[in-house]
Specification:
alpha+beta; N-terminal domain of TfIIb; 7-stranded antiparallel beta sheet; 6-stranded antiparallel beta sheet; Transcription Regulator spoIIAA; 9 helices
Length: 515
């Protein structure tokens, strides 16, 4: 069937359908003069299907609890997964009830060697067709094919294939090149439970050296040992788990295997002995990365506050996507009373190409507002920290974490301090999956500086203005040389610029005379 579209004035032939507000997720053409509209209602696991007929000018519910939805090419039949069963319904009818269930028991014989050969060929073509540089960074792609093709008949596992695909893409010498997924055998997932605490050996027992807390204001974080009603403190001893005594010769995590998100009894004592210990019921967590990261951030914030005598703010930007923007907004606008700021993008995971944060950090004062508090300091516009800033960078910041410091320098926001960033500013995309669900990325867009007509960051990173080595000795002593240097540099800039004071114009003269 040939489909013709009259594009002339097509925008003027759009008409709104008389539907109530809803979360409509899919439109599918039905029989002539009708359309099926899928709605996802709050609290419902399936879709509610409405059928709209032009002749009637209204939508009526056709089916509820539907999953996948598809119509036949002639629009007369509708296929949907209803309550776990595939069902074929009459699309001309007013309701999907009474459809015919279809038994599906599909099996296939798979020649994995041929499938892996096809994936290899597809990957080779994929990189050739989508790579941002038509010259493929100077590689002869036919030579690359001839180099790796002889290996494919010897592949015996999907992991072997992924390794070869990674080697092929490595020929492009580009940062954002990733291979993953595919048809792997199923394996059991680990259910290890963690305590969100540091344990050290002391007097033949496991001592709780530090409990990582949620800082009380992070509802999304859970500290198993930091819950109301528990009697556990730093310096106490973990002397047993689920009735089994624990000594320093035991691996404590062996006893927490399978306990993630499960109520678990631990035995705690304020001295290194199982005798006289008490029991606490906790729920170990699958990962304590969030707790440890939050502790690192808050430790840094307190350190900057201490080193600067309360003059400077500390702001960590974990990535240049949603989480990073939230962190920046929370810390940047909540510390407007500070005279300057240390911005920390070390370990930045990237995401978007940020200019929002740098734009906010480089704005100058425009106006001020009197404070409703008597004799209160005027409020400044724009909001935020308007004083000097420095940006901490390291080799573990990349992608958007490369672009962020580049823009920071370009906009003269302050010095870059630390070590050179990762160096990956050719964006990768996954345009489609391989036949077995695996994925290969193709770097298809690169960042360049139109003023200087040069590529930005790729394979070289963004170098600091002030290089500071994060040496192991300092870290072992609990020091952070990069952070300390940043505080020193920003304080010097604050002293040079001087504290910016804002004073309101003279108020009206008080009235004289009268009662």
């Amino acid at each position: 069937m040939e489909v013709k579209i009259d594009f002339n004035n097509i925008a003027r032939r759009i008409m709104p359908l008389p539907l109530d507000e809803g979360n409509f997720v899919q439109l599918i053409a039905g029989p002539k003069g009708s359309v099926f509209i899928a709605e996802r209602k709050p609290g419902s696991r399936g879709l509610t299907i409405h059928k709209f007929k032009l002749k009637d000018g209204e939508a009526k519910e056709y089916l509820s609890g539907a999953g996948y939805l598809s119509t036949s090419s002639d629009g007369k039949k509708l296929l949907s997964r209803v309550k776990g069963a595939w069902t074929i319904m009459d699309a001309n009818g007013g309701s999907g009830k009474g459809g015919e269930s279809v038994k599906v028991n599909l099996k296939m014989k798979l020649d994995r060697t041929e499938e892996w050969k096809q994936i290899f060929e597809e990957t080779w073509r994929y990189e050739k067709d989508y790579f941002y540089d038509p010259n493929l960074h100077g590689r002869d792609w036919d030579v690359v094919y001839e180099r790796y093709a002889p290996l494919i008949p010897h592949v015996k596992h999907r992991a072997d294939l992924n390794y070869i695909l990674d080697q092929i893409n490595g020929e492009l010498s580009v940062g954002h090149s990733f291979v993953g997924g595919g048809d792997f055998p199923k394996v059991d997932n680990s259910n290890m439970g963690l305590l969100g605490a540091d344990l050290i050996v002391d007097q033949g027992r496991w001592k709780i050296d530090r409990i990582y807390t949620t800082e009380a204001w992070n509802p999304g974080l859970s500290g198993p040992l930091d819950r109301p009603g528990t009697k556990i403190k730093n310096g106490y001893y973990l002397v047993g788990v689920n009735g089994v005594e624990l000594t320093s010769s035991d691996n404590p995590y062996q006893h927490f295997d399978g306990t993630a998100n499960q109520q678990t009894i631990i035995h705690v004592n304020d001295k290194p002995s199982f005798d006289d210990s008490w029991q606490e019921t906790i729920e170990p967590i699958r990962s304590d990365n969030g707790l440890r990261t939050r502790a690192w951030v808050e430790d840094n914030r307190r350190l900057v506050d201490s080193l600067s005598d309360g003059k400077l703010a500390y702001i960590w930007v974990p990535n240049t996507s949603g989480r990073g923007i939230v962190s920046f907004n929370r810390y940047f606008f909540a510390q407007q009373d500070k005279l300057g700021a240390v911005i920390d993008e070390r370990f930045n995971g990237g995401g978007l190409l940020d200019d929002y944060m740098v734009d906010n950090m480089t704005r100058k004062i425009r106006a001020a507002i009197t404070n409703e508090v008597p004799n209160g300091a005027p409020m400044k516009l724009p909001a935020g920290i308007l004083g000097p800033k420095a940006l901490l960078i390291n080799e573990m910041a990349g992608s958007g974490g490369d672009f962020f410091p580049w823009v920071f320098r370009q906009q003269n926001a302050g010095p870059l301090i630390g070590s050179t960033t990762w160096g990956g500013l050719v964006k990768s995309s996954t345009h489609y999956l391989m036949i077995d669900g695996g994925r290969v990325t193709c770097p298809d867009n690169a960042i360049f500086d139109p003023v200087n007509n040069e590529w930005v960051g790729e394979n070289k990173g963004i170098a600091p203005d002030i290089f500071v080595r994060q040496d192991a000795k300092s870290l072992d002593e609990g020091r952070d040389p990069q952070l300390e240097r940043a505080v020193m540099e920003v304080l010097k800039a604050v002293e040079k610029e001087g504290a910016q004071t804002i004073k309101a114009p003279p108020f009206s003269k008080p009235a004289t005379g009268g009662k």
